[in-house]
Write a structure and sequence with these properties.
With 512 residues, the protein is of the alpha/beta class. 37% of the residues lie in helices and 14% in strands. It has an 8-stranded mixed β-sheet with strand order 9-8-7-10-13-12-14-11, with helices on both faces. The protein has a 6-stranded mixed β-sheet with strand order 1-2-5-3-6-4. Strand 1 (4-7) and strand 2 form a beta hairpin.
Length: 512
């Protein structure tokens, strides 16, 4: 492939094909992106929907986003795109083993985003071409894509969903299986060198907590030792009145303003929203009450946002072996990660235990959707809501936390009731006006709500098929027959979960 070169004012070489707006490309080269295209208007928006047979609804970027001038998108047009020369050379360009150059470009963008820590961006009007391509991908190329990128199980699942009675599908499946294998050790872009801290941005740190005052005090000590301390820490404490010590947080002075709010509502989403209303900083760092953080934690959050010129990042969450571990143990765990730690790119998730967002965009979203209270998935929902605003959420390996995960306390105390059936069960917020009776909904209705909220009905259906496929075939061989006979009951559980998810979705996003 012949690519033209454009040299920016800083001396960086950008390769391109087609006719981009070079003035706009100059500006883009100073930002977070590594690959740029305008493919939505050229026939590529939501191209290659067959990715659903692998990703189901577990990939934020399975769908392209609407009504945005800029956003993350891996659907590159092979005839109209630009890329940093260093990135093109590191990723080794298009994979010519595909017969179709359109799929070569899609594979390049997909792997750049999902595996190589590069950031591909759709930029409206970067390329002025009004040529609309017709995307035609053969069965063979489709199975080659799955064979080269995923385990064989996903190809088998696609064969089942596409129609195992179709000879063309079988022929393509065996062709890919015979001639190709899964690609190992994809190249990964190295993180950019963090720039020195610019200015004096203020930072608000939010801690929702419940029956873990001792852990919260430990976290306050870590925050007091920061090289760039927060200007404000907001604690929303839901510890019951008879179990809490209201003077505990005030016994020591800290190098930041400390706000204590005793929560009268229920739920971690409501707690964060109540804290957000009190935040005055330029940035908000979200943290759980049961984490430990190193002294450069906040500084590295701000520096990575400034270096990549983005407004949100998701930090590195390290699970502790037990709740007595400390920062020395965190250092050992980070050393064991070695080179695998250093991967930035567009984040594949978002964690309320360790994330930093410019306050402007937090308040644009208002906060967490309280439909998730009593369950799981609120942090992923918040992250996806950010990218639907056109924000790039980068993964930040520089700011790591040690997640202690004590067995008692925390907001899951309320949510654990969801596992109980009968008279002892306490109604969960997501049950609304229809309490759970004899059938416990599985998966979690709030997880299902997030799926219904962000993905198409057809993708929800594919998630269902994938859910049962994994349930049936991923367990032990001895238990296969037992699982097979339990399918009707599992289906009732799934339908019950979907029932609650749709009721929540009909309510719409709520914040109070």
């Amino acid at each position: 492939m012949e690519l033209k070169e454009f040299v920016t004012k800083t001396g960086e070489i950008i390769l391109y094909k087609g006719q981009p707006d070079l003035d706009k490309l100059e500006i883009l080269a100073d930002g977070a992106g590594d690959i740029w295209h305008s493919s939505f208007e050229q026939g590529y928006k939501n191209a290659f929907p067959d990715i659903v047979y692998q990703a189901a609804t577990f990939f934020w970027y399975i769908n392209d986003f609407d009504n945005l001038n800029e956003c993350v998108s891996w659907r590159v047009n092979s005839n109209q795109f630009a890329v940093r020369k260093s990135v093109w050379e590191t990723l080794k360009g298009f994979d010519t083993q595909y017969q179709n150059i359109q799929l070569q470009a899609l594979d390049f963008g997909y792997n750049a985003l999902r595996n190589s820590a590069a950031i591909p961006l759709y930029i409206k009007d970067l390329f002025g071409s009004d040529v609309i391509d017709e995307i035609t991908i053969s069965e063979k190329d489709r199975y080659v894509f799955f064979r080269k990128n995923f385990k064989i199980d996903h190809s088998i699942f696609m064969l089942y969903r596409k129609g195992f009675w179709k000879w063309k599908e079988w022929n393509a499946f065996f062709y890919a299986k015979k001639n190709f294998k899964q690609t190992a050790n994809r190249p990964v872009l190295q993180p950019r060198e963090l720039l020195p801290l610019e200015g004096k941005p203020t930072v608000s740190y939010i801690i929702p907590t419940m029956m873990r005052q001792d852990f919260t005090l430990q976290l306050l000590e870590d925050l007091a030792s920061q090289s760039y301390p927060p200007s404000q820490v907001v604690i929303v404490d839901a510890t019951p009145e008879n179990l809490r010590d209201e003077k505990l947080y005030l016994e020591k002075k800290y190098p930041f303003e400390l706000f204590i709010k005793w929560q009268e509502t229920k739920g971690s989403c409501r707690a964060r929203n109540e804290a957000i209303e009190l935040c005055t900083g330029d940035y908000i760092v979200f943290g759980d009450d049961d984490i430990r953080i190193k002294s450069d934690f906040i500084e590295k959050h701000i520096r990575i946002l400034q270096t990549y010129k983005v407004n949100a990042c998701n930090g590195l969450d390290i699970r502790a072996d037990h709740q007595q571990q400390n920062l020395a143990d965190l250092e050992i765990k980070l050393e064991k990660l070695a080179a695998t730690r250093w991967k930035v790119g567009a984040s594949a998730g978002f964690s309320n235990a360790n994330s930093c967002v410019k306050t402007k965009y937090v308040k644009q979203l208002v906060g967490n959707d309280i439909n998730f209270d009593g369950g799981y998935g609120e942090d992923s929902d918040f992250g996806m809501s950010l990218i639907k605003l056109g924000q790039i959420v980068v993964f930040n390996p520089f700011s790591a936390n040690l997640h202690l995960k004590p067995p008692v306390g925390g907001y899951r105390f309320w949510g654990n009731q969801a596992k109980i059936l009968g008279k002892k069960r306490k109604t969960q917020p997501w049950e609304l006006d229809t309490p759970v009776k004899s059938i416990r909904p599985v998966p979690s209705p709030t997880i299902m709500y997030g799926i219904v909220k962000h993905f198409t009905p057809q993708q929800v259906t594919e998630y269902k098929y994938k859910h049962f496929f994994l349930y049936l075939f991923k367990g032990s061989k001895k238990g296969l027959l037992y699982r097979f006979f339990r399918i009707p009951y599992k289906n009732l559980q799934f339908k019950k979960s979907l029932f609650y998810a749709r009721k929540l979705n009909n309510l719409g996003i709520r914040h109070k």
